[in-house]
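Hi C.,

You asked whether I'd gotten around to modeling the 293-residue construct. I have! Everything is below, sequence then structure, no commentary in between.
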Amino acid sequence: MDIQAIVKQVLEELGKSELKNVRPSTTPIYQEKVEKMVRSIVYEKEKVVRVNSPMDGEIIEKVQSITPARIGIGRTGTRMKTREYLDFRIDHAAAQDAVFRGVSEEFLSELNLPVLQSKSESMDEYLMNLDSGRKLDDASRKWAEKNLSKGKQVQIIVSDGLSSTGVEANIRDLLPALVQGLQVKNISLGEPVFIKRSRVWIQDELASITNCDVVISLIGERPGLATAKSISAYLIYRPSEDTVEADRTVISNIHDGGIPPVEAGAYLADLIGDVLKNKASGVKLTQLKLSSD
């Protein structure tokens, strides 16, 4: 069941709770009132202490204010309360939707970036065969070899990854901020590209094709029940066949409830400047900066 169906069902349940005085036997009237309620309800999540007679409600409220975790939601017997159960279903549906929906064609047109494709021919293959997302398909590789600028300092990749929702929610602000930050620093930049169903390691192949110094991937994070709108930035200096994960620098939790996308773009530009200056990324960059302090 997709998120639209889940939300509709939740709204219907909330609408029914307002119709306790209407007899279900009057079916047409009941149905009409339910539909009217569904159309008029605006569903808003709110953090409220729902524990019955808590020993210290203020402490629970304080903890709720600093974490997206489900704390102080209360229970009825051995089960969570109805509203919290409905919240859970909506968040779960949003997480599934973020993975399987895919970035819309309207958004891709708005971005106006070259669209490439990994070897993953479907989302099922992408999820089950990790290697399929780590290489460009033949057509995309040939296009990149022929059309992308070579020898620039930075190459940017945007990818749906595991959260198309996260990409659509953040890239509009993040990408321009990053590009502007690099331009201010006079750092040369190749043409950013969008790669469908790609994983982080595909950046190594694109770095080899473009002969850039730094390649950075802005990619949708695995969604959770706290948020389905988060992306991460992975960057690496001059990847090779000997590259390991410790060579990559990652900045995660880029979203409105974490690192705001505009702020993240400016920070990533500064970080790329450090990577170029030190000719290193990942653990090596950290070690070099510590030794120079």
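If it helps when you're writing up: The CA atoms of residues 186 and 257 lie 31 Å apart.

Thanks,
B.
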